[in-house]
Amino acid sequence: MNTITNENQVQDQLSLLDRPIWNALNSKHASFALGNEYAKRYPSHILPFVGFDLDSGQPMEQLKAWMKPDEIVYAIGDLPKIPDSWQLLNQLDCVQMFCPELSVTTLDESIEIITLKEEDRAEMFELITSVQPGYFAKDTPLLGHYNGIRVDGKLISMSGERLGLDSFTELSAVCTHPDFTGKGLAYQLVLKTCLDMFERGTKPFLHVLNSNTRAINLYERLGFVKRKDIAFNQLKSL
């Protein structure tokens, strides 16, 4: 009976990841939330992400007071009915992965990993927008902890945390400058970031394009498992 109860509790917790933005803004990241009981968003200078209460009538209309004209934002997972005042620009097919336990716990000591701080933000923004533009703002590092690797003083690889729920933290901003790929740097950074999460009592999850088999294989080697297919929606407020 206890085993069944524990399994049910785990599934109840994991179900929060079906609406990760909404549940982050109603829990660990509530202090960042703009909006009301039906729709919330992160401030635009922190993260262009929005979340909705799918059980309410017109939550997207509810968010208009916190949107700029023609502003582009992102939502993860199922969407409510889209009113005429919004436009769905794009929808990416992603997979959500979750790490119940790391299969690797030892870092390569020959690779120096540093904790990225406030003075590193401009360089972090420059690196990630050169590789993965659109999902990272200059103040996104306020959401969590970030690690990086420097070569000759230049930041060439990084990883960190984005959505924060009470029991889960999203792994994000995993990127390496094209001149330094293929050296296992991202693997070490992801491992370090996940080890830090487990040490703080939270479990990692992430989102990756279904087509990015190279990244999926890397995450599976570390202990991540595929949880569900999930849409990454690009929306425009008209």
Task: Give a brief description.
The protein is α+β, with helices and mostly antiparallel strands. It folds into 2 domains: 2-91, no CATH class; 96-229, 3-Layer(aba) Sandwich (Aminopeptidase), CATH 3.40.630. Helices cover 25% and strands 31% of the residues.
Write the layout of secondary structure elements.
Layout: H1 2-14, H2 20-25, E1 34-35, E2 39-41, E3 50-52, H3 59-62, E4 72-76, E5 86-98, E6 114-115, H4 121-131, E7 146-151, E8 154-164, E9 168-176, H5 185-199, E10 203-209, H6 213-222, E11 225-237
Parallel strand pairs: 9-10
Antiparallel strand pairs: 1-2, 2-3, 4-11, 5-10, 5-11, 6-7, 7-8, 8-9
Q: Characterize the biggest β-sheet.
A: 8 strands, mixed
Number of β-strand runs:
11
Quickly give the structural class: alpha+beta
Tally of discrete structural domains: 2
CATH topology of the largest domain: Aminopeptidase
